[in-house]
Write a structure and sequence with these properties.
Length: 200
């Protein structure tokens, strides 16, 4: 942070870690510990950015939603620490699933993730982070996307569905994974020409 400040770089927000919440990933941090660590991060931001109008936001946890973990984290961190509640959505499952196209074209399958959006919305309503809920990472299929589906026009159906769902549940931001990388990159990594799902 000190380096960034010394260079005069403007930072919108800081998020502590990536996918450390819950039990879906190999690495994880206990919700109570994460809450304490985010308090330290918030205090560090306040200390290093003396003027409140230039202070970057503090976001978290940037992982998969699990009700108990999210509630414990926000109970420990308390009011006014986390500016925005971030979570990740990869509701299509692993990218190597041979049924990926069927999932994308099945509205009832796509609607299953509404429980996650509702859960996050309920937590936001309970703890009231200033900036609400953000989908800080979503690419549809895990592990870099699906090599046969993620770059296609059909993947746009998933993308549009998620944008609508996020809006329905008052998610303030939806960050798509990724501009260039993996099978879910929106641009061709060699030519930088948009892949068909870019237009989704």
């Amino acid at each position: 942070m000190q380096y960034t400040i010394s260079k005069g770089y403007k930072v919108d927000s800081y998020e502590f870690g990536n996918q450390l919440s819950g039990s879906r990933m190999g690495a994880k941090v206990d919700a109570k510990q994460y809450g304490k660590d985010v308090i330290v991060l918030k205090n560090l931001v306040k200390e290093l950015y003396a003027h409140p109008e230039t202070q970057p936001k503090v976001l978290g946890p940037g992982g998969f939603y699990e009700e108990k973990w999210f509630n414990t984290f926000l109970e420990v961190s308390g009011q006014g620490i986390v500016d925005g509640l971030t979570h990740h959505i990869y509701n299509l499952g692993p990218g190597d699933d041979p049924n990926m196209m069927n999932k994308i074209l099945d509205p009832s399958y796509l609607n299953q993730v509404s429980q996650t959006y509702k859960g996050v919305s309920d937590v936001v309503n309970k703890f009231r982070p200033q900036l609400g809920a953000w989908v800080s990472e979503s690419g549809g299929a895990l592990n870099g996307g699906s090599k046969d589906v993620s770059r296609t026009f059909a993947d746009g159906f998933w993308y549009l569905d998620q944008m609508g769902m996020a809006s329905t549940y008052d998610q303030k931001v939806f960050c798509r994974q990724a501009l260039i990388d993996g099978n879910y990159g929106l641009l061709n990594a060699t030519t930088f020409v948009p892949n068909p799902d870019y237009y989704g």
